[in-house]
Amino acid sequence: MGCLGGFRAITKETLENLRAVPRADRVPDYLDEMDTVDSFDVDKAWDAMHRALCGSELKFGNNPAPGCWVVLGGEVLRGDREEEDDYLVILKTPEQVWEVSRFLQGLTEEAFRKLYFAIDPEEYQYPMDEEDFGYTWENLSGSLPFWQNAAEKNLYVLFDVDQ
Q1: How do strand 5-10 and strand 38-43 relate by DSSP bridges?
Q2: Which positions ≥6 away from 56 have C-beta within 8 Å?
Q3: Using CA atoms in the order 13, 17, 20, 21, what is the torsion angle rounded to 10 degrees?
Q4: pTM above 0.85, yes or no
Q5: What are 42-101's pLDDT values in tens digits?
Q6: Do 52 and 68 form a contact (C-beta atoms < 8 A)?
Q7: If you write DSSP's letter for every residue of 90-133 in order, what string do you get?
Q8: Kind and range of the H or E element at 46?
């Protein structure tokens, strides 16, 4: 879990420019230079966030939606091919962004606590304790204004993380 992740809100035009870039070049150097409307870093918390919202599994997928759309759900723009295991880029559509925003608005700390402590500790392989829960919840709940802003502006959201 030494990988740092974050969200970037982008316009349709920026997405079209990104799609024109070869998959091999969709890496931090490129993403850091592209036009971003807003961003929110979740540090290393993305791993536990995804596992809690997706039944312990750290894999791409869209079920259960909309929780799985927060991190690894959506369209994989880089990272699902063997030679791309160093960097992940996953796209959420404006429709998914709206759904994530509504979902997170309704997610309480108590409900998330149950999801977090239901993570399979053997799958997670990191200490599951109050400190890690607090860190994960702080990053997830702290992302809500980002999601609301992106939804209101009808933006796309990228999640990216270096492996």
Answers
A1: antiparallel
A2: 118, 119, 120, 123, 124
A3: -150
A4: yes
A5: 999 999 999 999 999 899 999 899 999 999 999 999 999 988 888 999 999 999 999 999
A6: no
A7: EEE-HHHHHHHHHHHHH--HHHHHHHHHTS-HHHH-S--SHHHH
A8: helix 46-53
18 token code pair: 């990104």
**For residue 86, what pLDDT is reported?**
87
Query: Which of 139, 145, 161 lies closest to 45, judged by CA?
Result: 139
Contact predicate 105/70, CB 8 Å: no
Locate 84 and state its tokens.
């791309």
| pLDDT score, position 85 | 81
Whose CA is closest to 163, among 48, 70, 44?
Answer: 44
Could you tell me the two tokens for 130?
């109050």
Confidence of residue 1 (pLDDT cuts 50, 70, 90): very low
What are the DSSP calls for 70-85, one per residue? TTT-SEEEESSSGGGT
Query: Could you count the other beta carbons within 10 Å of the beta carbon of residue 95?
Result: 12
Interior CA angle at 18 toward 64 and 95, to 5°?
35
